[in-house]
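Section 3.1 - Work completed
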Amino acid sequence: MFKNIKSLFIVEEEPKKEVAKSVAKDPPKPATEATPDIPSGQASQEFMDILFKAMQDNNIEGFDYLEFKKSLLSLKQMQMDEPTRYQSAFAMAQTLGATPEKLVQTAQHYLDVLKNEEQKFQKAAANQQEKLIGTREQEIAQIDAALKTKAEQIKQLTQEIEQHQQQAAALKKEIAEATIKVETTKHNFVASYQQLAAQIAADIENIKEYLK
């Protein structure tokens, strides 16, 4: 199960931060003036699990980078420096047919798996952004145009103008909340991907340096 792969990569979870939501109280302004604060991304358990599951689904049979990673972790508690730990793990791996080239090749395979997941996520996020934000921005633009027109009309239209103002305020609130949700999700995925990919990339560099 992907829990076995998950145990090979130590991920410290950070406490979730509450994000202040903007509330539209004033009459609506052009949508371009309302820009909600987007929190920085952080690795999340949800996305880590998705990435680990993808690695599990694309696990290479036989001894590969993941098995080598497991051997490295088994030696982590021993008093040895990093080069010695890599070399000791490789000594065991050689008995199972491992080579530095194969370890790098299979590690790159898992980086490719993660990259594919990132591409799928970016596509899904773009579709969600269009669904949650794009149509609302069009509505805001239409309401802004209606407000400008009706403001020039006679006083009998005051009640109708007020109604449009309330609609625009509600839509701006939805956009602010939806924007934070979409951008937070995107940033959390990127942080998860970068943290995991960096570990693998570091292992590749160490394999190349220590296992010549």
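Second construct:
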Amino acid sequence: MADVRASIVVPTTGDRGPLLPHSVGSALAQTVDDVEVLVIGDGIDEATRDVVRELGRADERVRCFEFAKDARRGELNRHAVLTEHARGRIVTYLCDRDLYLPGHVEELERVLADADFGHTLRFRVAEDGTATFPRYPDLLHPDERARLDRSPYLAPLTFVGHTMAAYRALPHGWRTTPAGTATDRYMWEQFLAAGARVGVSHRPTALTFKRGDHPGWSTQQRLVELEDWSARLRSPTVEREVVEQVIAGLERRRLELERRAWARSLEGGADRLLPGDWGERAVRVARDVRSRLRRRPPRQEGRPPRQEGRPTRQ
């Protein structure tokens, strides 16, 4: 089988089938056509199995790999699929409850042209639709790289990509995560420990909807949210709208941290929160986001979805 530009890994489990037409649909609607979508089922039910099969019949780029429920998130199954079946030069990931904006794979491909591991702008979409910014470490800042143990997160699954060559050079790849450790973080630390070249983009390219600790919201609750956002993604102005939400969220976060730092200074504490001051970084990121938006032409209204016109798998 011929190689493709990107393998998009979509882990799923249980009864998440109703979400997949939205998440997988956003992966198939990328500006990069030459992708494969690898849905990795970790103990999926019959209804979810039927959904995945239908997606595969509708678009030959979708392939499903089904496994019995494994420990944690089925990390060993992800490793097996990547090493035995994936054909992409780069690998990206998509949580089954999240969505890609149309340029996500293209942007990660640009980032990974000179890096082994990287991510696009990390943020969360709150229940009210605003962009929020948990305290993620700056992986390009030496001081923060040296203090990764202070942060429970590195980068959510949906924002991350890496080259296949870098993955194959790792000592383990995906492996069962110890209890009490975040699955994604355990994986990404391998790249950092191996001295991987890290690339970062300040462009918002994906939407992640974390709703409480695992397992979080029910599938039905998630479905209502994804239906709403999937409809928004069909608008030719959606990327501009998301960028404006991101810039507003960065400004709120910057002001919050400035107030917190000022309060600490009045109490005799440090007047900075952490190395790589987040307030200054928020200004820099917002400026970069605006600059990238000005350089990118708007998507044309009526542009046909990328998945249409593909051969149907029999």
